[in-house]
């Protein structure tokens, strides 16, 4: 069975890069009926950000790729855990890491080190001067190899701060097969004697990730390519413990227009910033899926189920994936256009409520619902993100404000605009309430204009302005269909009044 994991550190808001990894994890697992779980890697105590764990879980829930196991929200919306291999939060697993650290110490594959920050700094300066790569020099520094184990234990008993480092063999090729990059070999001389346990008693990422991936039965480790250089250390740890290693796949870096790695510095890339701007989760997932993977066909639009079906790790590319914001906007438009209107209205409501155009009570009421769906339908072709909607439809909620000159079509006159509005109003008055719909109004008005030989602009321009107060609004029939007869007449009367 395939078991994948997303193990974010709660050091900030869940971002696009993590979403891409989580999505591939999810797709890979779901394709084979496997398990996808969420583990929280909170061992770096100085970088914890309040609310970050909640944000991670909520982000995954929002895009509908919730984890099968690990950290989840319970029914009350509180953080909780499920699954047989917990706890899934690393800070709750310290005794487990202690046990495995001890095992490595006993096997002399790890050792205690007591170097002060000053001593380490001096070592680095020396290496820098000699143009050597920064590397812990086990043979000359202060550790249980140079001091002897007895002395080391005495120092620990006396309360001296210490770390535990891993032994790296000299001049040995360490190889693994990466699912994306193929065979990778690194000479151990390139690998530093990594700290496994810090002086605060917490493990480092390297120890914790290996122990947890093993104990949680992870079969595939997918992560960003920035972790490739850590993998040889992990391979050694698997070997030291006598464990089978999982399959590794390092996903291509995601870059912006300038070819720079996508990061907060180039604008907010947190998943929730896209939610708050009004991207639909379906569109975001569809777009993110294609950041480094392609189906091998021209197909671009995929539901989550469709992705599960089509996904294949062998089509994950090595070259950087371009985060093309225009493309994301295009995806969002596609989803806005084809979404069921009632569902789309639900998605738009938070934005309309937030802008003050709609109250919570309005959103509940049935009458208002028909109107709201009409309003959303009016502009769905014209918006890219849902946050554009309130401004685009505000004229539907309050009487539009405009200068009377705007009512005048091209070379026409204000007097003519007034006349046209008066006759059109007369015509519209003849339409029964039950026939008040876009098609019917359209047909009536057009045959009337034709019969009277009015210019289309001469007749419809003043009408459009009267209804919307805007040059670039949807067409007057569409607006009238949604506003209803009474409100439409009110607006036409205001315009006639302005012109009198
Ligand atoms: N905690 C690491 C991160 O924040 C996980 C890396 C991995 O997947 O091994 O990305």
List keywords for this structure.
500 residues; alpha/beta; Helicase, Ruva Protein, domain 3; four-stranded mixed beta sheet; binds glutamic acid
Structure description:
This protein is an alpha/beta fold and 500 residues long. Among the domains are: 94-207, Glutamyl-tRNA Synthetase, domain 3 (Alpha-Beta Complex); 339-398, Glutamate-tRNA synthetase, class I, anticodon-binding domain 1 (Helicase, Ruva Protein, domain 3, Orthogonal Bundle), CATH 1.10.8.70; 399-499, Arc Repressor Mutant, subunit A. It is 46% helix and 11% strand. It is built from 21 helices and 13 strands. The protein has helices at 16-31, 52-62, 94-106, 117-129, 144-147, 149-157, 205-215, 231-241, 271-277, 281-289, 304-310, 325-338, 341-354, 360-364, 366-379, 389-393, 414-429, 438-452, 456-468, 476-483, 485-499, and strands spanning 3-6, 35-38, 69-73, 79-82, 110-113, 163-166, 173-178, 182-187, 195-197, 220-224, 247-251, 254-255, 321-322. The strands form five sheets. A four-stranded mixed beta sheet has the order 1-2-3-4. Strands 5-6-9 form a three-stranded antiparallel beta sheet. The protein has a two-stranded antiparallel ribbon with strand order 7-8. Helix 2 links the parallel strand 2 (35-38) and strand 3. The chain is elongated. The N and C termini lie far apart (78 Å). The mean pLDDT is 96. The structure holds glutamic acid. Residues 7-9, 41, 205, 209, 223, 227 line the site of glutamic acid (GLU).
